[in-house]
Amino acid sequence: MNRKGRKYLDILIVEDEEAIANLISVNLSEEGYRCTCAYDGEEGADYFEQGSYDLVLLDIMLPKLNGYELLEYIKPSGTPVIFLTAKGDVKDRIKGLKLGADDYIGKPFQIGELLARVEAVLRRSGKGGRMLYFQDVAIDTVSRRVVKKGEDIRLTVKEFDLLVELVRNKNIALYRDRLYEKVWKEPFTGETRTLDSHIQRLRKKLGWDHYIKTVFRIGYRLEENL
Ligand code: CA
């Protein structure tokens, strides 16, 4: 146990800019995480093989092995990965998500944002998080079944992914662009109809009109405490 009374969680940071790697390490350590820094892809792979990590923060442009190559190596272990991408580099973000990264953070970032994303990914990965529940709905993320009051609700692939994203981030306002990129795995062009119509259908199929809130100029929030 650390001083915050939590079990130590180990985070591997793979980032060749030492100043950034160390900044992340210092801040996460202050929050009670145990951090290891690797400064190139090969070193990252070595540490990953030798250690046991709860999360990997992974830069994309790395010497020796790049972040995508390293992700392919890490992914089969089921360890969650957050990509560190250059801000605004949509192609990198989408490629990372498609390859199975759990989230991304654009550099430069605010430490507060980094901490929030790390916590959210760790919470969701919560090992054994197969079932999700919200109100009277149960979601099985492995068989992709959704049951409401004993009845199966039929959702399309994207409706299901969207539902999981909302439930995993309940009570948090989700930006349209991030939500879109996470679910569709393509760049958000600013065209909101696709996302909005999927939200509408989810509200209708689940009877969640009052739970899925529209957040003015931002996006959506699944609200638990009405
Ligand atoms: Ca780099």
Report on the architecture of this protein.
This protein has eight helices and twelve strands. Strand 6 (131-134) and strand 7 (137-140) form a beta hairpin. The mean pLDDT is 89. The protein has two domains: 10-128, Rossmann fold (3-Layer(aba) Sandwich), CATH 3.40.50.2300; 154-222, Winged helix-like DNA-binding domain superfamily/Winged helix DNA-binding domain (Arc Repressor Mutant, subunit A). The chain has 226 residues and is of the alpha/beta class. The chain has helices at residues 18-30, 41-50, 67-74, 90-98, 111-125, 157-168, 176-184, 193-206; strands at 10-14, 34-38, 55-59, 81-86, 103-107, 131-134, 137-140, 145-148, 151-152, 174-175, 212-215, 219-222. The strands form three sheets. Strands 2-1-3-4-5 form a five-stranded parallel sheet, sandwiched between helices. A four-stranded antiparallel sheet has the order 6-7-8-9, covered by helices on one side. The protein has a three-stranded antiparallel sheet with strand order 10-12-11, covered by helices on one side. It is 40% helix and 22% strand. It is elongated and about 50 Å long. The structure holds calcium ion. Calcium ion is lined by residues 16-17, 59, 61-62.
